[in-house]
Structures are given as C-alpha cells and as structure tokens.
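User: Can you recover a sequence for this backbone? Please restate the input before giving your answer.

Assistant: Of course. Working from this structure:
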C-alpha cells in the first residue's frame, strides 16, 4: 500500500529582525531557516567556502546574470567571486526581508524576498526585489540546498 502524500505545512517569517518564532515551527523548518540565514550571512561576509557549504554536489542554480543555468558545486562556486566584487564595489546590500519555509520529511522548499542592490539604488527604491526559491534535500540527516533560483521582476 502506498502511503498518502502529506502536504508540507507552510510557515511564514517576515523579518530577520523579528525574534518571535511561530510556536508551530518544526525542527526541520527551524533548521532550514538557520541554513538560509547562515548562507545570506556568508554572502554578506564574502566567505565563499561558507556560501557553498551545505549545498548538494549536484546543485542546479538558475541565476540572473549569465550563465543563467549552473550545474554542480564547482560551477556554483565560480559564480560567487564576480557577484561579491559587485557587492563590494557598489557598497551593496544582501538582506532577507521575508522568508517562508515548507518542509516534508526528505524534501523542502523556501521562498524569500531580499534587498539586493547598491546603497545608491536602495536610496531611490528600497523595495525588496530579488526573489529567491530554494529546493532542499535531506542528505545523511542534514538539510542541503539542491536548487536555487534567483530572479528580479522585469521592468515593463
């Protein structure tokens, strides 16, 4: 007999600054939230080894700048130095403003809105515009990022 699919429960969090946690948040959701927040902290600290930590070897990333499709941990690692240089030169910001997590037993996903722009651009419009979707797999009992999709809305 096939076990029925269990729909993951969605838990929303709206700001890194908010310290109050949802009382119904599972341990997996909390672990995923920490993983993503640690990843964003590593980006701000410009620590490539920490950025790629907890990513699956076969990660697939769809990114904004070319190459728009990246496969494998080595290729993923290569995308970060140019972005980090842009972040330094533009006095940039990389800040999670909204994060939602849905976790099953072995797979999970998260969606986020981030402020990712130079300080000058944010002075004109500080709306969180970078959209992030993350797919995760539990590997040997630990959550690992298997997919990232970064996008900005098209200016029409």
């Amino acid at each position: 007999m096939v076990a029925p699919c269990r729909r993951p429960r969605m838990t929303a969090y709206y700001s890194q600054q908010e310290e109050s946690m949802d009382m119904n948040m599972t341990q997996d959701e909390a672990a995923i939230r920490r993983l993503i927040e640690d990843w964003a902290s590593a980006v701000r600290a410009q620590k490539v080894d920490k950025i790629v930590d907890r990513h699956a070897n076969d990660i697939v990333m769809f990114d904004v700048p070319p190459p728009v499709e990246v496969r494998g941990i080595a290729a993923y690692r290569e995308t970060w130095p140019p972005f980090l240089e842009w972040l330094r030169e533009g006095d940039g910001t990389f800040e999670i403003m909204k994060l939602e997590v849905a976790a099953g037993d072995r797979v999970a996903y998260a969606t986020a809105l981030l402020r990712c722009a130079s300080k000058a651009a944010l002075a004109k419009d500080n709306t969180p515009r970078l959209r992030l979707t993350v797919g995760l797999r539990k590997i040997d009992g630990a959550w690992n990022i298997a997919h990232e999709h970064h996008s900005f809305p098209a200016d029409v």
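That completes the design. The chain has one domain: 29-151.
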